[in-house]
Design brief:
By secondary structure, the chain is an alpha/beta fold. The protein is built from four helices and seven strands; from the N terminus they run H-E-H-E-H-E-E-E-E-H-E.
Amino acid sequence: MSYEQARTLIGERFTSAQVDPGTPERRSLGEGGPLVVTLPADQWLPFATFAKETLGCRFFSFLTAVDWKDQGIDVLARLDNLDTTVSVTMKTRLAAGVSQCDSLAPVYRGANWMERECYDMFGIRFDGHPDLRRILLADDWQGYPLLKSYAVDTPYPPYR
């Protein structure tokens, strides 16, 4: 599977997806660089399934989020095909005030703890997650520390 084949397959199957091809110069040097695929939130889980089954991206590298304040929260996941060095960074934006996204844990077991971390730090609820609970902070912790709206003057250590 080449980057061009992957890009074509993504475009055919996910017409609402925006595919950023990265830099072709780096790919021609064999350095890779992920295809960045921006999807609507309702295509998050179907695309992950497609990436695993069709593109051969069986390695789940990471999942994280970025809070853009009034613009919402981006959720990103990196998927890799270790046989062909094709990498895909999938990305979706949750609108401001929306904190729900489909879980990738049913497709990639490695997403389990990373989704728990995003829940703990950003408050994103992953629908279909097998065990969504705090993983880093105490159960009685209030708020989500990596949200830009989080009050730094909290009474909880180490911020008191």
